Amino acid sequence: VPVVFTHHTLYEEYTHYVPFDSTALKQFTVDLSTHYANLCDGVIAPSESIAHLIKERGVLTPVKVIPTGIDLELFSSGDGKKFRKDQGIDSGKFVVGHVGRLAPEKNLQFLCQSLCHFLKDSPQALFLVVGGGPCEEIIRKIFEDQGLTGQLLMVGKKTGRDLYDAYRGMNMFAFSSFSETQGMVLAEAMAAGLPVVALDASGVREVVRHDKNGFLLLSDATSEDFSKHLKMLATDPGLRKRFKEGARRTAQKFSRERSAEAAVEFYEEIRMRTRQGRREEREDIWAALGKRLEVEWALISEKAKCAFNALAATDQKGDDE
């Protein structure tokens, strides 16, 4: 049968979870995923940014951009008032929210520094964090050092109805990750009608349209600049309303129905493209066996080649230094 690989992770951004993390390991991970993609019949990328990136890295297999779909109706149906009541959030509070795994690759220290700048000038505002992970204590420490623990609310991981309610309990969404492949939480936030302030990065620029549904800041923006744009939204109801309307329009592009239809179309395209070759293999048992051995050998040899190239590149870098 045809093999379609969904390239939904920048694996090199997660090597810090592995013992002996190094430049060589990152290079090995990039090369390995590239060679694996080239052994497949088709590749699904969740965003144009990722499709462009993996093609630059050498993926020659046909690539189709298909974002992971979300249930627009569910994310737009949350009960924000109930969430606020359950969490003890006053109805007059202005809530800046964030949803996601609280991990180093999410650039959370920058986000927290930006929020601290904003909150110091906005005593009626609150930073709501939904999610869990290894950076929980780091976030609490940053706000404690700034004397802002009273304006930080961490509610842990939420799923299902609780998550939909949490989104609707926010006034806007803040995001600063550089490791996303598609920024699903951004699409979820927009389905809930939230304007977004985010940094320009892969997977983010496909969702956030500057001055249309939020602010997309340069990747090297400072925390003060990020804070300034948070304040612009917080103090301008008309701007928030315009961005909310834009956010809901954007969310329509990420409906699970549209994504499912696109996936089925791509599978059918790959099936038709590979049909003749698969038919020939079925008719000739030796050809089929040869193909199987060829693929197995390619998997083994490419792993070895990736490891060698990564180590060689590291040695060369050391010599240059």
Shape: globular
Give the helix tally: 12
Largest sheet at a glance? 6 strands, parallel
Structural class: alpha/beta
State the end-to-end CA separation.
Answer: 48 Å
Query: What's the β-strand tally?
Result: 9
User: Order of strands across the widest beta sheet?
Assistant: 6-5-4-7-8-9
Radius of gyration: 23 Å
Poorly predicted runs are none
Average pLDDT taken over every residue? 90
Helix percent reads 40-55%
Give the oligomeric state: single chain
H/E element sequence: EHEHEHHEHEHEHEHEEHHHH
> In percent, how much strand structure appears in the residues?
5-15%
Question: How would you characterize this protein structure?
Answer:
It is a single chain. The chain has helices spanning 23-39, 48-56, 72-76, 80-87, 108-120, 136-145, 160-168, 184-191, 223-234, 237-251, 256-283, 285-320; strands at 4-6, 42-45, 63-65, 94-99, 125-130, 152-156, 172-175, 196-199, 214-217. With 321 residues, it is α/β, with parallel strands linked by helices. It is globular and about 75 Å long.
